[in-house]
């Protein structure tokens, strides 16, 4: 799709110094693993894909910045904080050295709907995506990434305890896109490892 990777939300960005390394260290370990596995990266058209986040407190979270999917290694300059959002207005407030990922509203919907979820991984894997899409609850095919509609769909799905327990959702309108989530980054990562063992 020609608008892949494009930020679709409105945002108020307060440019701040990079986040302390201890805030991103665990998240960055998993980001390295996902990149090495090709679950985050850059497609044949040079468009980056994939992003990860972790909750800091209540509805404040740290997320990889826009345009970082193609980078092999990330550091403090590549993460930012989402300090506020309005799903109905498709808007975010960002504080950090970089703009937030184009999928930030989707992450926000997870954190708002599921208080026990503290980490969200958005990866791409075509075979796993097709497997999940036709066998487990997924977002509708007509719902595009980075939109209020996607956030609403995610929120709706996560109100089902079964979906919350399975820890993974295929994004029907975002080809190859998958969300995995858990109580921390390790549990989100283990969910991915578990499902990849089946494909």
List the helices and strands and how they pair.
Blueprint: E1 10-15, H1 21-36, E2 41-42, E3 48-49, E4 51-57, E5 60-64, E6 79-86, E7 91-96, H2 104-113, E8 119-124, H3 126-133, H4 148-158, H5 161-166, E9 168-170, E10 177-182, H6 185-196
Parallel strand pairs: 1-7
Antiparallel strand pairs: 2-3, 4-5, 4-8, 5-6, 6-7, 8-10, 9-10
Helix pairs in contact: 2-4
Walkthrough of the structure:
With 199 residues, this protein is an alpha+beta fold. It is 32% helix and 26% strand. The chain is built from 6 helices and 10 strands, in the order E-H-E-E-E-E-E-E-H-E-H-H-H-E-E-H. Strand 4 and strand 5 form a beta hairpin. Helix 2 packs parallel to helix 4. The longest helix is centred in the first third of the chain and has 16 residues, at 21-36. It is globular and about 45 Å long. The model has no long low-confidence stretch (mean pLDDT 92).
Global outline: globular
First-last Cα distance? 25 Å
Fraction in helix: 25-40%
Q: Which assembly state applies to the chains in this document?
A: single chain
Secondary structure tally: strands: 10
Give a summary of the structure in a few sentences:
The chain is α+β, with helices and mostly antiparallel strands and 199 residues long.
Provide key terms for this protein.
199 residues; alpha+beta; L-fuculose-1-phosphate Aldolase; two-stranded antiparallel ribbon; 10 strands
